[in-house]
Design a protein that fits this description.
- By secondary structure, the protein is of the alpha+beta class.
- The chain has ten helices and nine strands.
- The protein has two domains: 143 residues, Jelly Rolls; 105 residues, Homeodomain-like (Arc Repressor Mutant, subunit A), CATH 1.10.10.
- Helix content is 38%, strand content 23%.
């Protein structure tokens, strides 16, 4: 039988969980505890945007993505915009077909409908499960069949280990729209641009430009989820020309920011 609870937190509206899945409805800014599970699971944001934080870094899960977390992986979810998060725990036989690392997949219309069907809490309240175990396993196999890793680069922010890169990350996160060069930022943290470039390549596999672009796009997704328009978002995230932002966003997300925003309900704009 599902466990339904009304949280005292101002961010959590409702939470309904059962052995094979669950649904958490959060207002913007809500987050889960740091946790791990003995079964791998998929999460999908029916509305809003999710970020999934693991020991390796942060992945962004917007409307056309679903995130995979293997069994035993420590993780935390955070909501951006009013978010309806759905969770599907996978049987081991099905989970074995997915990577042994956290990943983000493209989701098709079929995958979305399967997730929503398997996580519909209205079918759980005291009624017999409409999907007996064998049917759930079949639907889980269909769901995994429909998932493909995106051809465009994933929106992923690795967490640096070196203290100089951590200091650089804090500066970039505090002002993602800043055009300050890596050399100027290096002076502020006591590291040369040559040293920072070497560390970025060896530790994160990115150039400074690639890393800053990922961080800006990450912030842009959160602003769009919170109701900001495309031009406001572009300027806040460091693009002087909205067309440059649209090009960069489309290359990563496979959709323009306007189309992305139009196809999902928006959270109310925060002051």
């Amino acid at each position: 039988m599902p466990a339904r609870r009304q949280s005292s937190s101002s961010h959590i509206v409702t939470s309904t969980v059962w052995p094979t899945g669950g649904r958490h409805v959060w207002s913007s800014g809500g987050s889960s505890s740091v946790q791990s599970h003995d079964r791998g699971h998929l999460v999908y944001a029916a509305t809003g945007v999710l970020t999934v934080h693991t020991a390796a870094g942060t992945s962004v899960v917007p409307a056309n993505r679903v995130a995979w977390t293997p069994a035993g992986s420590t993780h935390q979810h955070r909501a951006h915009g009013d978010t309806d998060m759905r969770i599907v725990f996978l049987p081991q036989s099905v989970a074995a077909r997915l990577p042994d690392r956290p990943a983000v997949f493209l989701t098709t219309g079929v995958a979305r409908e399967v997730i929503l069907a398997l996580t519909d809490p209205s079918t759980r309240d005291g009624a017999a499960d409409p999907y007996p175990p064998a049917a759930r396993r079949r639907l889980a196999r269909v769901l995994v069949d429909e998932l493909t890793e995106p051809q465009e680069q994933p929106l992923y922010l690795p967490d640096p280990r070196d203290d100089r890169l951590q200091a650089l990350a804090r500066l970039l996160a505090a002002d993602p729209g800043s055009s300050t060069s890596m050399a100027e930022l290096g002076v502020r943290i006591g590291a040369s641009s040559r040293t920072l470039s070497r560390l970025l390549r060896s530790e994160l596999g990115m150039t400074f430009y690639e890393w800053r672009t990922q961080l800006r796009l990450y912030r842009a997704l959160l602003l769009l989820a919170d109701g900001h328009d495309v031009t406001q978002t572009a300027h806040a995230c460091g693009w002087t020309n909205p067309s440059g932002f649209i090009t960069a966003f489309t290359a990563v997300m496979g959709s323009t920011p306007g189309r992305y925003q139009a196809r999902r309900p928006l959270a109310p704009r925060r002051p």
